[in-house]
Write a structure and sequence with these properties.
about 20% strand, binds zinc ion, alpha/beta, TIM Barrel
Length: about 280
């Protein structure tokens, strides 16, 4: 079976372990056909990130060049063994697309894919931007309330999906607010907002990631849930797989088990990216 892992980090972001080469070698060991190198894009140029320890979240602007050159060299070095695809995981910040693009546009032609993510929420009249998937901000869940976090998250994701200035290919870890196993009280209201988001994703025609990193977290399931993947399938939304590896051993995490779930739901192909162009592989 052809397996591809489109979501991997490395020591560059300062909270993952191992060099990019170690991840590539781990992927070869697993006989993957493709590894997507997708470290966190820099944050330091963003506004209103006073509370965010962004020094530990991502590479910095001056490090972009080395990240790309290293990945390009590895693509060449291991081309007989594996496809190395080069990307970034980029956080969406409402109304900050222009400054992001100042830094992203010059390197975009060297990328194969972009994962669009939201890890940071900034409530209107709130305490300022905070990282809802960072355990150091657990008190903010109590402050805002679990349902409000889910609702605001999906509404922020809708803004990302509808922003014509935010260029991306793949929605990463769609139901991330469940990471710490926080369950919404009013599931129906949250599900409605989630469905609205899926419909807008369908309209934009981007791909969604099945992220097995969730299986390593308190929620103990992939992002998104089986219930959501079924909705995605009926909307005919394309998918691909990512381990969100933060250690080389995380590469292709529980892919065998997860691909069985996907096939049972009905999926028989996965998206693949090359120079930002999508095609599909059979599974
Ligand atoms: Zn990370
Ligand atoms: Zn992420």
């Amino acid at each position: 079976m052809i397996l591809e892992d489109w979501h991997s980090h490395n020591e560059g972001c300062r909270h993952a372990k191992g060099s990019i080469e170690e991840y590539v070698r781990a992927a070869i060991k697993f006989k993957l056909r493709t590894i997507g190198v997708s470290d966190h894009f820099p944050y330091e140029f963003l506004e209103d990130i006073e509370r965010i320890p962004y020094e530990e979240y991502a590479i910095t602007l001056p490090e972009i060049e080395r990240y790309l050159t290293t990945s390009e060299d590895l693509r060449e070095k291991y081309k007989e063994d594996i496809n190395v695809r080069i990307g970034f995981e980029i956080d969406y910040f409402k109304n900050q697309e222009p400054v992001l693009n100042t830094h992203l546009t010059p390197v975009k032609k060297r990328l194969d894919f972009i994962l669009g993510s939201i890890h940071i929420l900034n409530f209107f009249n709130g305490k300022g931007a905070w990282g809802f998937d960072d355990s150091r901000f657990r008190k903010d869940y109590d402050f805002y309330g679990v349902d409000e976090v889910y609702m605001f998250y999906y509404q922020s994701l809708q803004k990302m999906v509808n922003s014509n200035k935010f260029d991306f290919d793949i929605i990463a870890h769609f139901d991330l607010p469940k990471k710490f196993n926080d369950i919404p009280t009013d599931k129906e209201v949250v599900d409605n907002e989630m469905m609205k988001t899926l419909e807008q994703i369908k309209k934009r025609d981007v791909t969604m990631e099945i992220n097995t990193g969730g299986l390593r977290k308190d929620c103990k399931e992939q992002y998104p849930s089986v219930q959501i993947i079924k909705e995605m399938y009926s909307l005919d939304i394309p998918i691909l797989m990512g381990s969100d590896a933060h250690k080389p051993e995380d590469i292709a995490w529980k892919f065998d088990k997860t691909i069985k779930i996907l096939k049972k739901i009905g999926y028989n192909k996965l998206a693949h990216y090359n120079r930002r162009k999508r095609n599909f592989i059979e599974i």
